[in-house]
C-alpha cells in the first residue's frame, strides 16, 4: 500500500494489513556452547523479549537506500553474533555424556549450543509513517501495527529448542525504518539485551566494541537442575490455575523531567530523620514506582483489604559477592516482591509506598540472592504470569538503559518500545525519555476499564499540581 492520490497516508487501522514480509534468511557465526545458569532457568516459560526501534530515515543525510541499509546491518549482525555467540545457538537438553566443563552442569541441564544463527526478516509497510507510531499518543490502532513490526509474538522461550534465539525484522516504512527484535529471555536479560544492541550498532558504524561480553556462566552459579518441560506453550498455559489471560490495553505515558522531579520531591518531602542522621532518600525509581503502584491500585478500584503486590526485576550483578561486571552476558535478574493491603497503600502518604520499595530492594543482598537460587534449585518451577501475585504491578527494563544511543549510522531512534510479549496485567516497562533530560516513558499494560480510569486520573499525571 503506497501513498494515496491526495498525498496523505492511510490511517494506522487501514495500514495494519500493509506490513508484508518480503524475505527471510539465517545469519550464523561459528559453533560454540554454554550451559544455562540457575538465573536463566525461571524464564524458560516466559516469552521472547521483544524490542522495537523506529528510525526516521528521511531526515538522515547518510541513510542508505533500504536494501543497502539492510545489507549493512545484516553484515554487522553476523559480526556481532561471532562475539555474542549464545544468541546464534539453540537450547538443548544435555545428555549424561555431555560435559562442557563448566559449573557442575550435568544430564538434564539446559545449555545453548550450535551455530544455526539468527533469523532475519525483511518487510515493508509503505503506508505507515514514523509519526503514526512514534507520537505521544499510543492508540489501539498504532499498537496493532507495531505488533506486526516485531517477530515471534506469542512464542515461548522453550521454543528455543527448535527456533532461533534471536529474530530480527527490518521493515521499510513510508519515511523510516523499523527494527524489531525478539530475544529468547532464557538466554539474556535487559542489561545484556542493550549491551548487544549497542554493540551491533557500533559494528554497523565501523567502530570497535566498547565493551566485550563475558560468557562464563559458571560465575553466576550453574547447578544441574532438571526441568520437566511442557510439550508446548499451549500445554503450559492450560496449567495456569488462574485460567486464560484477559484482554489488555497497552499505553505509553511520558513523564517529563519536571514531573519526575515533582514525584520524587513529594516522596522525600516528609521523610523522617533516622537515628544518627538523615534517612536514606528515595531514588527516582522508588518514588516513581510508588507513584505508579498507587495510581494503578486506584484505577483497579481495590478494596481496603485487597492485597496488592509490587515486583521489580532487579539486576543482581552488583549484589553478588563478589560482584559481576555489567559485561556479564546472560540473565542476572531476580524478581523482588513486596505487598500490602490496598487501604494502607492508598490511605498512607507517598513516602509509605516508596519506603516499602526501598526496604524490599535494600534487603535483596548477596545472601538473599543465594537463598533464592537455592530455593529454585531444590524445587524448580515453571512459572506463570499469575505467580507475580495478586493485583500486581511489575516493573521491567530501566530508564538507565541507553536505548536512544543505538545508532546504526543514521541517527538515534525516534521511539523505543516493547512488543506484545510478556505484557500481563500490571506489567510496566520504563524507558528514558528521548530527550535525555531526565524524563521517563512508562509503558503499561492493564485491563481496559482500569486503563480508562487511569487515563482520567489527575493525580497520576499531577495535573492539579501543574495547574
From TrEMBL:
One GO MF term: acyltransferase activity, transferring groups other than amino-acyl groups
Gene3D superfamilies for the chain: Chloramphenicol acetyltransferase-like domain
One Gene Ontology biological process: cutin biosynthetic process
Highest taxon above the source species: Eukaryota
Pfam families in the cross-refs: Transferase (PF02458)
GO cellular component: cytoplasm
Record's keyword terms, sorted: Transferase
Matching InterPro entries: CAT-like_dom_sf, Sec_Metabolite_Acyltrans
Coiled-coil positions: none
Name this protein carries in UniProt: BAHD acyltransferase DCR
Organism: Sorghum bicolor (Sorghum)
Taxonomy of the source species: Eukaryota, Viridiplantae, Streptophyta, Embryophyta, Tracheophyta
